[in-house]
Specification:
This protein is an alpha/beta fold. The protein has one domain (13-136). It is 30% helix and 28% strand. It contains three helices and eight strands; from the N terminus they run αββαββββαββ. The protein has helices at 13-34, 61-65, 100-114; strands at 37-41, 51-57, 74-79, 82-84, 87-89, 92-99, 118-123, 135-136. The longest helix is centred in the first third of the chain and has 22 residues, at 13-34.
């Protein structure tokens, strides 16, 4: 019929609540992502226990100088075990590889959903970061 739109078939109140929380957490994560300043490190042994971590890798300067082809940076998402106000979480990861902007957006969503304190970035070298990804803290260190 003209002027009518289909309403999604929500089977239970629990499914409706889950859909609402997913939408809400996604919106909060998107707002947070706009002005976020990322703590960062190039030290692979520096792992915070209160953060969702986005690890970024790609072609380093040394690799380019050695004649290897350029490869777009990709990211992985992982976290340490933690007890937060939202629950108890085991060490985990989100399967990837991700492109960097999508990984950062997903990390903010997970931070909101899981109750971790922050999103941080680890990189092979600082030169792999691009301004379109967001802002890095002025000094290295988590």
């Amino acid at each position: 019929m003209p002027g009518m739109s289909r309403v999604p078939n929500i089977k239970t109140a629990e499914q409706e609540a889950r859909r609402f929380l997913d939408d809400f957490d996604g919106q909060v994560a998107a707002l947070e992502l706009r002005d976020y300043v990322y703590a960062w490190t190039t030290d692979e042994d520096e792992i915070p226990d209160n953060a969702i971590i986005v690890g970024i890798g790609g072609t380093s300067v040394e690799m380019l100088l050695a004649g290897l082809p350029y490869v777009e940076p990709t990211a992985s998402i992982y976290w340490s075990a933690a007890v937060t106000a939202h629950g108890v979480f085991s060490v985990g990861t989100e399967p990837g590889p991700w492109n960097v902007p999508e990984a950062l957006a997903r990390a903010h969503f997970l931070r909101q959903r899981m109750g971790y304190e922050r999103v941080v970035v680890t990189m092979e070298e600082a030169g792999i970061w691009r301004p379109e990804y967001g802002r890095l803290a002025e000094r290295e260190g988590l």
